[in-house]
Amino acid sequence: MTQAASNFSILIVEDEWVIALDIKRHLHKLGYRVVGTANSAKKALELVATTQPDLVLMDIYLQDSITGIEAANQILQQFNLPVVFLSAHTDESTLTEAIATHPYGYIVKPFEEQDLSIGIQVALANHRAEQVIKQALAKEKRLNELKSQFVSIVSHEFRNPLSSLLMSLELLEQPNVLNPEQQLAHIERGKQAIKQMAQLITDVLVVGQLEQEQFHCQPAPIDIYYFCSNLIADLQSRISTAHRLVLTVEKDEATNIIYSIDPQLLQHILTNLLENAMKYSPVDSTVTFHIQCEPDNVEFQITDQGIGLTDYDLAKLFTPFHRGLNVGKIPGTGLGLSIVKKCVEAHGGEIRVASELKVGTKFTVIIPAQREQVNIQNNPFFRDVPRGLLP
Known about the structure:
Layout: H1 3-6, E1 9-13, H2 17-30, E2 33-38, H3 41-51, E3 55-59, H4 68-79, E4 83-87, H5 92-99, E5 105-108, H6 113-172, H7 180-211, E6 220-223, H8 224-238, E7 244-250, E8 258-261, H9 263-279, E9 286-294, E10 297-303, H10 311-315, H11 336-346, E11 350-356, E12 360-368
Parallel strand pairs: 1-2, 1-3, 3-4, 4-5, 7-9
Antiparallel strand pairs: 6-8, 9-10, 10-12, 11-12
């Protein structure tokens, strides 16, 4: 039995049981797995549904009223499986009818074992090539759709901050119109507009890289508490909000909390989730950021008291450019959560969400990673880390 052949399974559809047994014997000799035999179109369709073979060898004239040609057409449409006809009939009308179903081969009985082997190999190779082409076309179509959406969303989302920036600059260039306090307010407004546009550009670039599979997970040792503390400090410095952001860490006090995780991908994950939690919550509410450190994974929980998600939005939550039905005039592109999902999947992790309208939302991200025993004093990665932040 060859290794290549043993990876493929075949269903035999033949109304003559003696011939079916002979075909089965040849297939076993060639190294293929036979998942079953059927003598009627109905039985063939049932077996295809239950066994999901890689290929179907189909006789044309079967015991029931449905011919093998009709059965092959249904198999191709419903299951997208390659069908090779085995038939003693070579008349013009039968061939014309069979060709119309676009079979992957036509072997005339009686056949030589070599003919059967070649016919199956060619059919499987053609089917694999077709699937690769279909996937490539689907990916190209998806990328073209994303490009169109990028142009639309960028032109729309850039308009407001650009208008705000232009208005601030026009006021600032007019003498004696604004007092010093008003000037500072407009300068700050301009900074926020620039930051908003810069974040949009970053999101668009990241989504483009993720869709083209240019992002690779590159783990490095990270002190989780130090990393998240810095992240929160950065968010609080650049987001004007009255939210109280509470960080808690659950760990075994006898061990450190250093894990090998891709810092860039982790920053995308946590930044997007924390920004969303604050953006969609009342200004006087609390956002809780809880970290649970286990020996073989890290669990991040971000809980807000915000607007919540509808059932419809939950179903489309990680679709690029999708925004909640209840977001109102809160600005956004609908890219953040799709970025989060891709970055979590790059780590082999999972993301869960629980939400209730007008009550709040909790995102849970679990990233598999081994807790590392690192000699902090001798490790250059931690040389500049303030001692108070190390576990």
